Amino acid sequence: MENVLEIQNLHVSFTTYGGIVKAVRGVHLELKKGETLAIVGESGCGKSVTSQSIIRLIPKTSGKITDGSILFKGKDLTKITEKEIRSIRGSEISMIFQDPMTALNPTLTVGDQLIEAIKQHKEVTKTEAKKRVINILNLVGISNPEERLKQYPHQFSGGMRQRIVIAMALICDPEIIIADEPTTALDVTIQAQIFELFKEIQKKTGVSIILITHDLGVVAQVADRIAVMYAGKIVETGIRKEIFYKPKHPYTKGLLSSVPRLDLEEENLVPIPGSPPDLFAPPVGCPFTARCSFAMEVCEKVYPNTYSFSANHHVCCWLQDERARSVQFSAMGQGS
Ligand code: SF4
Description:
This protein is an alpha/beta fold. It has helices at residues 47-54, 82-88, 100-103, 110-121, 126-139, 145-148, 158-170, 188-205, 216-222, 240-245, 250-257, 297-301, 322-335; strands at 3-16, 19-32, 36-40, 63-72, 75-76, 93-96, 176-180, 208-213, 225-230, 233-239, 306-308, 314-316.
């Protein structure tokens, strides 16, 4: 499958009163056509900042992309002008946010908002725009769209409002949708419907989706590929089966052990001890060292190389390096 987006060595920092926060530190990622890539990790790991950097939504006053490139259709999105990124944002790459109520304007009807979204990017008549709105509302499962487009956001339930936000993201036929915790504000049954809808839409339109979430249950339902992020870095990537059944990184294993499982008779949830490192002064070595029960001397001093297990499964951890392991074990042997 061809790549629709390639992020290379992305670094993003924020200037604060306390100093410079290095939120994203050398992220490499690619998104393939028609796939759902989930970026997972604890709060503050840099997953939302990475996705917002793609369409330059990080706050201009404090945030800055300090290095790297984001390639889309032969253009580096970090280098193009504000006008060019505005024409891509919402039309070729669109975003779905967590809370549908803040994403919609409460003073305009749903129809007017959707028509406005089309007119911002395409030269169409009002009749053509209205026809497109009705088609999209049908696609996202809103019944009787001709009537419902005359209603205001508060006249819809939470799940229906999120469907309208999805319709808004789809209205200009984008190649990529970035969905940042799109169902966190919804109850579990509505969550399942929304993810079913994502799958249907992807089948019909071939759109690629970047899903940002901390919820591994959601990931298990929809992701084709998963990138695990920790302290501003991608520490493991793989297809869903590789990450869920053959995780290699101790952090990925920790995340999976802290999720409740119905298939086990005795549930034994194991939290990951400690907290992520200070990103004002991130560690030079593996950022997981202080929380990792397998940490070796080398981990603290040098950032691990990337080790590959298949075309998609890659991990950054010294445990996969035979030499690093043997040095550690021989040192332990001498000491005992
Ligand atoms: Fe643990 Fe070392 Fe691997 Fe980091 S590199 S996850 S500290 S074993």
